[in-house]
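User: Predict the complex with protoporphyrin IX containing FE.
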Amino acid sequence: MTTHLIQPTSEASTRRHDGLSIALHWSVALAVVLTYGFGLLREGLSRGPSRDFVLLLHMSFGILVMAGAVFRIAWHAGRSSLGARQPVSATWAAKLAHLALYAGLIAVPLAGLVMVWTKGQAVPFFGLVDMPQLLPTNRIASKVLEEVHELMAHGLVAFVGLHAAAALYHHYVLKDGVLAAMLPRVR
Ligand code: HEM
Ligand code: HEM
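Assistant: Here is the predicted structure with protoporphyrin IX containing FE placed in the model:
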């Protein structure tokens, strides 16, 4: 039987995601906005140190996005296997949408990472450490991945827009507590 918890019951409106899940959700969301913003900003800059610095920020926040998504999946899987209470909404549509979001949160940065490696470069993480080039240089792969990365990035951001609209629909129309469950508790 499907767990379906989005009815506006008093239980649904009081159940919340755990603190770490909420913190991860909003940190990853912020990192996506920054990464996307730096990607677009870089595109408009002419060659020089500022452009390089913006790309460094773009790549570093992008890696944080991927790490945050992987960590969130592991955390979620760990809690499920321990039989912890599940989030407020667990419809198949929501599960599918979240799966697609996670896939994008990993695939977009991964394509960026592999693009840079196949260009023959290491990836500097906030200028603190270099992630070494782990794949052989391949100009053709790098060119293809540049296009794939960009296309997938725009797709991910469009999907995030739909996701946010769905969350607002739950909040203002269905009034089922789905959004409140993802907001930090205000004391
Ligand atoms: C959620 C994560 C990411 C998003 C949403 C994203 C998005 C974008 C966008 C929108 C652009 C500009 C496309 C354009 O208008 O030309 C771009 C370019 C770029 N991204 Fe990402 N990116 C992400 C992660 C990464 C990561 C992790 C790396 C590498 C470690 C990376 C490397 C690059 C590079 C090198 C470019 C410039 C490509 C060129 O030479 O035109 N990105 N990215
Ligand atoms: C870049 C921005 C965003 C990304 C990448 C993102 C990603 C995700 C992902 C992967 C989930 C699955 C579950 C989880 O992580 O706990 C989720 C859940 C959720 N998100 Fe977002 N999100 C973003 C922005 C937003 C915004 C702006 C809102 C509100 C307007 C929002 C509201 C929610 C809610 C309410 C849930 C829980 C849904 C449920 O319980 O079924 N998200 N988000």
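The pocket of protoporphyrin IX containing FE (ligand 2) is lined by residues 17, 21, 25, 28-29, 32-33, 72, 87-89, 94, 98, 101-102, 105, 160, 163-164, 167-168, 178-179, 182 (CB under 6 Å).
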